[in-house]
C-alpha cells in the first residue's frame, strides 16, 4: 500500500453490496459502471458522458480524482489501505494539479530514497501521474516487497528521478506521549489515519494519559489524510457527547445527519493541531470539535476535501470506487476547496528543531482562563 491508509479513499464507506466475481465480457462491466454512476454518484451524470464507449472514457469525463475503476488485481492491492501494516513505500499522497504531493513519510523506502514531504510525484513508471485517478496511482506504486518502482518528482524547480524498492511499512494509527510544560503534564495524541479500530486505540490512549495526570490534550491531526467516515464519527464522539458531527447530501443520497455516539472518553481541555494536509475524515473531526466549541484549532488551513466515497464490487472481480455524497460541517459550512481555517494560525519552520505549532498548542492549554 502506498499511503498511510486512506489518503486516497478519504471519507470512505464500503458498500454493503456483494456480488459474484465470475469473469464477464467488457460490455457488461461498462453497463455496470453506467448503472452505478446513474444511481449513486453525488452529482447528476450527463447522458453524453454515460454514452461514452469505455469505462476509462466515462470516468475521465467526470473530472473526479476520487472516482475510479480498479481492476481485480488493483482492487486486491488497495482493499486493505487502512491497515496498520502494508506493502509499499511509506509515503502518504494527496492530489495536486501536477500529480500527487507527498504529505507525510514513514520510516521506510521512500524516505531512504530521498523523497521528502512537499515533493510532487509527476510520473509513475512511464505514466504521467496527473493522468491517473487517485486509487490507480496508489495501485501502481504499491506492490510486493523487494520490487521496484520508478518515480519522477518535482521539488520546487528541480526534477528528480528516483527508484524506490518497496517494503513492509508499519504505520500505527495512533501515537501518544506525555509532555511536561509550564509546570504541568499534557497529553499529545497523533492520529495518522482514520482506519479500522482507530477510535478504540484512541480511547485507550486517552484513558492512559488521564491516569498519568494529563491536565489537557493536544489532538494532532497534521498530515492526516482521512480514512473511514465511521471512524471520524467515532473519534469525534470521544470528545462530544451529543449533537451533529457531519451531514451528507448527494444527487442520489438522501440528506443524512450523523450524530455523536454516547460514550465520551474525556472532558479535558483540548487543542486540535491541523495543517494543509489535514483532509476529509480528519477535517470532519476538527470541524465538529470547532463547531461544538469543544476545542481550539491551531495550525494551518486544512486541505478542503468534502466528498465521501463508496466501493461497489463488480461482477468481474473489479471494483468501482465512486463519490456518493458531499459533506458539510455541523454549522453548515462547505469545506470543499477552502478547508477549515484555524483559530490560531501558526506554521512550523522546517529549518528549526522546534515544533512551533505544538508549542503554541501547549501555550493555549496552559494559559489561565478568565
Overview of the molecule:
The chain is of the alpha+beta class and 370 residues long. It has helices at 26-40, 47-50, 55-62, 72-78, 109-112, 134-141, 198-211, 229-236, 281-291, 356-366, and strands at residues 12-14, 68-70, 85-88, 91-96, 99-105, 120-124, 127-128, 148-155, 158-165, 167-170, 174-181, 184-191, 217-220, 244-250, 253-259, 270-274, 296-299, 307-313, 319-328, 344-345. Among the domains are: 91-169, PDZ domain (Pdz3 Domain, Roll), CATH 2.30.42; 174-308 and 323-366, Alpha-Beta Complex (2-enoyl-CoA Hydratase, Chain A, domain 1). Strands 1, 2, 14, 15, 18 and 19 form a six-stranded mixed sheet that branches. Strand 6 and strand 7 (127-128) form a beta hairpin. The chain starts with 11 loop residues before the first strand and ends with a helix. Mean pLDDT is 88; it is low at 1-25.
